[in-house]
Write a structure and sequence with these properties.
Elements: H1 2-16, E1 26-36, E2 40-41, E3 44-46, E4 49-51, E5 55-58, E6 61-71, E7 76-83, E8 86-93, E9 99-107, E10 110-115, E11 124-142, H2 144-152, E12 160-163, E13 166-179, E14 185-194, E15 197-204, E16 208-215, E17 219-228
């Protein structure tokens, strides 16, 4: 009788803590994401001339991520990546010093097809993804320090900065670790690589237009929590 009672209790515990990614499940993940660009920049151009030795730079930026996945089956899912706006400081080097050009914000909506290689009952679920990213730049600003430098070159007013939006490939690798009484809560780690290219334009009144082609191609890291519905 005691053995039977123990067996029933164990069965109830196992069934109560069962974990499975099933077709139709929706997974919501959120955390802190950091965009770390791997910048490759052309030399700056001005009025048809190339300013040899110059380059643009982009600093890291962090924001709150909000990521949703719909499971098409127990192995395949579709993920949509969203976030609050990322802010990045912009630099220019090669003019005798590195100076602050200004800043920009961006939003990186991304859609990926995911593959989960382990059995759906595994409490540790690594996954891979491949898809498309669209990066929208906005709220670009030229710094006061940059405008002061442009003034020494003959600028007659404040400069205006614009960055071209980008569409490119995205790839990811991540892992969920289930916890909690029903194992619906998740601890999540993920990293994306995104192909992001832009053209920067700075219109300087009285001087001309400064341009640069910039490849950002960042790694995006996130750590946070999720819940499986």
């Amino acid at each position: 009788m005691k053995k039977m009672a123990l067996g029933i209790a164990l069965a109830a515990f196992v069934s109560g803590s069962a974990f499975a990614y099933d077709e139709g499940d929706f997974i919501l993940r959120s955390g802190v994401a950091t965009v770390s660009p791997d910048v490759s920049s052309s030399a700056l151009g001005l009025g048809g001339a190339t300013l040899d030795g110059t380059a643009a730079g982009v600093e890291d930026g962090s924001a709150l991520s909000l990521i949703g996945t719909y499971m098409l089956s127990d192995r395949w899912g579709v993920e949509v990546v969203a976030a609050t706006p990322f802010r990045h400081d912009l630099k220019v080097s090669g003019l005798g010093e590195t100076f602050d050009l200004g800043e920009t914000k961006h939003l990186p909506p991304t859609v990926l097809l995911q593959y989960y290689p382990l059995a759906s009952t595994s409490a540790v679920q690594p996954y891979l993804g491949l898809g498309l990213n669209y990066t929208a730049f906005f709220d670009e600003k030229v710094s006061g320090a940059a405008n002061d430098i442009f003034a020494t070159l003959g600028a007659t007013g404040d400069a205006e900065l614009s960055l071209k939006n980008s569409t490119g490939v995205a790839a990811e690798a991540g892992v969920d670790v289930a916890f909690g009484a029903d194992q619906r809560w998740l601890f999540n780690l993920a990293v994306w690589w995104m192909d992001i290219d832009t053209k920067a334009k700075v219109d300087v009144p009285g001087v001309g237009r400064v341009t640069a082609n910039v490849e950002l191609d960042p790694l995006v890291y996130t750590a946070g929590f999720g819940y499986r519905f």
